[in-house]
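Quick question, first post here. What does this chain look like in 3D?
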Amino acid sequence: MDLVWISVMCGILGFATVAYFVRYVLRQSQGTERIKEITSAIHEGALAFIHREYRTEIIVMVVAAIILALIPALGWKTSVAFIFGALCSMGAGYAGMNMAIRSNGRTTAAAEKGLNQGLRVSFRGGAVMGLTVVSIGVIGLSILYFAWNKDPNFLAVIPAYGTGASLVALFARVGGGIFTKGADAGSDLVGKVEAGIPEDDPRNAAVVADFVGDNVGDVCGMGADLFESYVETVVAAMTLGIVGVVVAPDAIAPWVMKLFPSRSAEAALRASWWLPMLIMAGGILASVIGCFAVRVGEKVEMAALLGALRRGTLTASILTALFSLGAIYLLKAQLGLFWSVLAGLIAGVLMGESTNYFTSYAFKPTREISQASTIGGGATIVRGFAIGLMSCWPPVLLVAVATIIAFYFASFYGVAIAAASMLSTLGVTLATDAYGPVADNAGGIATMAELSPEVRERTDALDSLGNTTAATGKGFAIGAAVLNALGLILSYALAAGLVTVTPEGRITSPPELSLLSAPVIVGILIGALVPAIFVAITMKSVGVTAGLIVEEVRRQWREIPGLREGKARAQYDRCVDISTRAALKEMLAPSIMTIIVPILVGVVLGKYALGGFLISSLATGFILAITLNNAGGAWDNAKKWIESGQFGGKGSDAHKAAVVGDTTGDPMKDTAGPSLNIMLKLMSVISLLLAPVLTRFPGLF
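> Answer (accepted):
Ran it through. Tokens below.
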């Protein structure tokens, strides 16, 4: 029996659990008529944006597919796999967002009954996103495997699937990020800072656009982001085995047979394909169990809420380790592969805990930012950025240690397996992330619907937890992206002939590869530059969008009689439309740059320069992404800590300074930072896809 069928069955189990959660959430009360009215506006705005964004993506997708089909070394099957990957990514993001916009109002209504009920509804709404991503990912990969695993061109087909998913993820993450943070920053600047009115005040025309942005950026964008991470970890592991047959069968085949003894060369190759799929299958089963482990009492405490979500993720991680051990035993593989799995799992859990420490107001770093806010906005910015930079050392060391352990026990294939294991629990990890925007929307709806302070206290607690879980999820995604990109870069290096592998599993470089050669040095410099340019473009785009929102809110206050006094209704749809048009326009430049630059480096400077480019961009992008993510999350929660009554509470000078920090951090943590990890993986998988072409074209220098 082909063991990939086990993955298919686990994917079906994931879909069955999704159906249960959807039925559970939709059976909950939608709340008062005012809650229904607000959620209807969010629903309409989110779907309007995503439909327009997808129309743009489809045009780009069709053009790219035609180009791939015309390249002789790739062919029409590569083009079909590319389109299939893009459609799977679009479907996963759309399904998760559709559930989120149906869960937010129901979470508000559930919070009227109790904190545990509010957490249950919001978390299960987010779990739909998590389990949909992993189920579509596993089944999509299985379909490609069954269709073309015996095809000689399978080396190009599998990376094309990941490339399609990456392209959609980049558009979704960048476009959604520009939308959400442009609306959020604009709303805060003109509302809390300029007019001195509360957050989510119905007199502010930008609040609904802010709610919409939470769903299109933090749910749909994050879903597409982690979908492509999820499938590309399997792509990297499978490609390494395929490269062994196509590029260096005499060297790699004996080594692969050492990992999977008592098998022929062909059987060992198939076992190397099956293992990552079985790890993902076990992760789905573990994530389903972990989702049901999340529950909390009625005491409004951050520690209790964090403990509830931590219980779910730790349960899933432990079970995944056990299931992976079973898969390795079933394949009669070397035990060293299990240590690679364990290295990835432990690194993922610890990275989440590290991000939690540096961004939650339950710990010292974020409280230091709150205290600095008593001095002024400048002190807030300085302290927050310093903490963001300091927070880089744990994830960098964790990825480094995981890479060393995985390579020691299973060489380059072990690194890819460590990345796969880190993302294997994505079903529950993404659920804790997607829960955040649902809870955030629920709190805003409670304010706009003028519910009792007790309800708002519960939704505020859920929202604060959501800020931490969102930061943790993004930190996890960045760390996993780096380990994933390492696997893809290794695959590229083998496929393009940059390195060779001995039968013992050691990697050697040919004499012509020198770090001191001019093309390689230039590639390294360009690689270090690209993440910085990418961040600059995306953050500027948020600023442009925020400026448009500020002008529109001011216009409505000037031209709509009684709006400032709360006697008239704001034109919420105008801000949604402005954010949509600005985001779709501004997302093109960084997306096109990500696609074009690695191709130009490879064609002009050659395959060795492209290798230096990929490694350099990975190192620079990793540090930038962690800094931006954690500084932004810490600024956000420092503001929440003050709003809880510390250092003068809402309306104090410290609060105003904290709002400045929060506004600064918004585009960093929700647009530029998380988009970087997609950029790194997309450039890596594009390079892998073009490796057969670059081996025939040595470059101009």
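The beta strands are 500-501, 507-508.
The two ends are 50 Å apart (CA to CA).
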